[in-house]
Amino acid sequence: MKLIKIQKLLNATVLTGEELLNQVEVKMICGSDLISDVLSFTKERSLLLTGLTNPQIIRAAEMIDLCGIVFVRGKKPGDEVIKMAGERNLPLLLTRLPLYESCGILYNAGLQGCSGLSLATGGDKIDRAPRPLGDPSRR
């Protein structure tokens, strides 16, 4: 699903990376407000939905190679965070919707979560177990 469709589904404002909305293809999402969970369980090229607005989230996004971030609950990051994302060509969106509803809307639209669980497989199939942060294959 293109990021522009996600922006419309979540009625989100684009903070940076507007020129990338038609280019970025999102295959899965992860929703978390814990940086440790983001680092441990988020797969590469995922879209992160979070209420975390500090600069560490941009650094984590770069380490994991996220395709973008949606800030939920109307929590707008500061100028430093927006600037950091712009320098890294990392699209940032902002929605007033809570995390749970945002993830639910995208799941119902066909996006899979990072767990690999899917209703299509009866909810009992995991594509792969999360890799530890120190695992060299995360790089």
From TrEMBL:
The protein's name in its UniProt record: DRTGG domain-containing protein
InterPro entries per the UniProt record, alphabetical: DRTGG, Ser_kin/Pase_Hpr-like_N_sf
Domain DRTGG intervals: 6-97
